[in-house]
Amino acid sequence: MSRFPDRYRRNAQTISPENQTKIQASTVAVIGCGGLGGYIAEELARLGIGRLILIDGDRIEESNLNRQLFATEKVVGTPKVESAGKRLREVNSEVKLELFQDWFKEEKAQTLLTGADVVCDALDSIPARLELERSCHALNLPLVFAGIAGWYGLVGVSFPGDQSVARLFGQGERGVETVLGNPPFTPAVVASLAVAEAVKTLLGKESVLRHAWLQVDLLAMEFEKFYLQI
Amino acid sequence: MRVLIKLFATFREGRFKSEEWELAPGATVAEVLSRLKIKPEEVSIQLVNGKDAALGQVLQDGDVMALFPPVGGG
Predict the structure, then answer these.
(1) Chain B residues within an 8 Å CB radius of A168
(2) What is the distance between the alpha carbons of residues A127 and A119, in angstroms, rounded to a whole number?
(3) What is the domain count for chain B?
(4) Minimal CB count within 10 Å: which of A39, A99, A211, B13?
C-alpha cells in the first residue's frame, strides 16, 4: 500500500486510502473566491486535493470581512486569489495551486478549466452561473452549483446535458441576495455541502443531487430536496 | 378545487409557509402568483407536484404548487 500521510489518517474511515490517492490525483476548479469559494477551496485543500484552480478577478474589500474566509483586515485591497493562495499554501503545501486573477467568461473556459475533473460554482450572479454551466457542459465537465442569500442557500450537481442551473435559475432575473446580503454562517454551511458533493463526484459515487437541488433554510432549519424532472 | 401553496425562503416573509387555497376551476399558476403579489420575474422556479411548471399551467384539484425565489449569491 502506498504511503498514507499522517495528515489524512483521521479521514481514513470515511475516505479510504485508495480514495485519498484518487483525490490527490484530482483537480477541482473553484469559480469565485468570495464567501462560498473561500470555504470550498479551504476544505478541498485540507482534503488533499491534488490541484486547485482558483478564478476570481476581484480584490478584497472591507465589506467582505463579514463572511469571506480569505478576507482579513491586513489584506484589504489585495487580489482575492492572492490572499487565497497565501492561506492555502500554509494549510497544505502539497496542493498545486493555479491562481487566475480574472473573471470567468465562456470564451476563456477552455483555458481556465484545463485539466479540471470537477468544477465548483461559487459565483455571485445568476447570468455568470448560467454561462458557467454552458461552458462546463461544452467541455464535458460536471458542475457542483451553489447559491446563497441571507439565511437561504441551495446546492446541486449538474452533469453534461442536465441543464439543472438553466432550469433552476432560468427565470429569475436578480437574486434576493442583492437585498439580503450574506451573513457568515450561510456560505460556510452551503460551501461544505458543495464540497461533499464535489468529493462524491470525484470519487464516482452516485450524486443524490443530480437532476435535483437541496434547498437550505437556516432560519427554519429546513433542508429539503427538490427534483428537476427529466 | 383545493390547491396546496408552498412558499420558500423570502417568499414566506409576510405571507405563509404552506396554505391550502380554494380556487375556481381553471385557475393558473400566474393567477396564484398575482394573488400572492409576487411578480413572475421574482420567481426562480415554480413546481407543480414536483415538476417545473409554466405560468399558464392550469391547476387541478389536489395540486401542490411550490415557489422559490432566486438564491444567487456567492
Answers:
(1) 44-45
(2) 17
(3) 1
(4) B13
Whether B74 is in a domain gets the answer no
Would you identify the CATH topology of the domain A15-227?
Rossmann fold (3.40.50)
In sequence order, which ranges of A73-180 are alpha helices (DSSP H)?
A: 80-91, 109-112, 126-138, 164-169, 177-180
- What is chain A's pLDDT, residue by residue, as a tens digit (230 residues)? 456 788 998 888 899 999 999 999 999 999 999 999 999 999 999 999 999 999 999 999 999 999 999 999 999 999 999 999 999 999 999 999 999 999 999 999 999 999 999 999 999 999 999 999 999 999 999 999 999 999 999 999 999 999 999 999 977 667 888 888 899 999 999 999 999 999 999 999 988 999 999 999 999 999 999 999 87
Interface test with B, best of A125, A152, A190, A222 (most B CBs within 10 A): A152
Whether ipTM tops 0.90, in short, is: yes
Task: Report the candidate in B72, B60, B51 with the shortest Cα–Cα distance to residue B28.
Answer: B60
Has residue B73 been placed in a domain?
A: no
B12: in domain? yes
Does any CB of chain B come closer than 8 Å to the CB of residue A185?
A: no
**CA distances (Å), origin A107, targets A26, A29, A70, A102, A115:** 24, 16, 28, 13, 17
CA separation for the pair A126, A170 (Å, rounded)? 8
With left for phi above 0 and alpha for psi between -120 and 50, is residue B14 left, alpha or beta? left
A-chain CB neighbours of B43 within 8 Å are 171-172
Contact yes or no for B7/B43 (Cβ under 8 A): no
Residue the block writes with cell 452561473? A129
Indicate which CATH number applies to the domain containing B50. Answer: 3.10.20.30
Domain residues for the domain of B7 are 2-68
